[in-house]
Amino acid sequence: MASVGLVSRVILSKNVINTGRFATLSNTGFIKFYSTAPQYENIKIDVVGTKKNVGLIQLNRPKALNALCKPLFVELGKAVTDFDADQSIAAIIITGNEKAFAAGADIKEMQNNTYSSNTKEGFLKEWEDISNCGKPVIAAVNGFALGGGCELAMLCDIIYAGEKAKFGQPEINIGTIPGAGGTQRLPRYVGKSKAMEIVLTGNFIDAQEAEKMGLVSKVFPVEKLLEETIKLAERIGTHSPLIVKMAKQSVNQAYETTLKSGLLFEKSIFYGTFATADRKEGMTAFVDKRSPNFKNE
């Protein structure tokens, strides 16, 4: 969960012009949605999409390249939990800014931690709020996603990346290892050999390579990333929220069990859909050649 100090020193800052509902980054065509009702110190939230059914969370520590301090993760966990409980929200997007999704953990915050304090306090326990979310969570990654930033992206169900995104697990450079999934999720996504190379060297990989190895679903121009991610969330939102949640559970089970056990789990969830009104409505609508009217039941 490392942050690389060099990253913050070599990137030139850009002015941000606030225009109320939107903020435009100077010298670019990049427009991002900002919340007009700041409820948090380290994140910004809003509801977007044509049907206002997509929860948008933006990490907001730009001077620290969105370094993942504990207060930020407490706020992030609360925002995700609140969106998960909101019946009007179909999917959740987590994003950063053009320079950084999250350049790593806040090293100053953890440098004096001890084994004892980590164990007693359950260090990083706040991260479980993301993985426990029942709704689809999509990472929209521009810029750096390093250490904890890469691990946060992997906590999400789908990763879309801007063409200039950089991923990596550079913890080895500061005498530690990934502690929030980097050694466990990464091999499952990209294979043992690639994961070993990334973890043991601390080298970065670009968006194109990340897509090639299966870490990222799609890569877009920087200015199109958020727009395309919202489109994906809206597409998911056209389906039954109940069935989407069941489908997510079934796919995630593939990483937790053997193939035989996973197939049994899938079959039980599949059978379970036949106890829902939305399954009946979906099949009836298909036979009747009309659009389904799902009710999350």
From TrEMBL:
Short name of any one Pfam family annotated for the protein: ECH_1
One GO BP annotation of this record: fatty acid beta-oxidation
EC number(s) stated in the UniProt entry for this protein: 4.2.1.17
Entry's Gene Ontology molecular function annotations: enoyl-CoA hydratase activity
Keywords: Fatty acid metabolism, Lipid metabolism, Lyase
InterPro entries per the UniProt record, alphabetical: ClpP/crotonase-like_dom_sf (IPR029045), Enoyl-CoA_hyd/isom_CS (IPR018376), Enoyl-CoA_hydra/iso (IPR001753), Enoyl-CoA_hydra_C (IPR014748)
One GO term describing the cellular component: mitochondrion
Family membership noted in the UniProt record: Belongs to the enoyl-CoA hydratase/isomerase family.
Family annotation (PANTHER family): ENOYL-COA HYDRATASE, MITOCHONDRIAL (PTHR11941:SF54), ENOYL-COA HYDRATASE-RELATED (PTHR11941)
The protein's name in its UniProt record: Probable enoyl-CoA hydratase, mitochondrial
Gene: LOC106119181
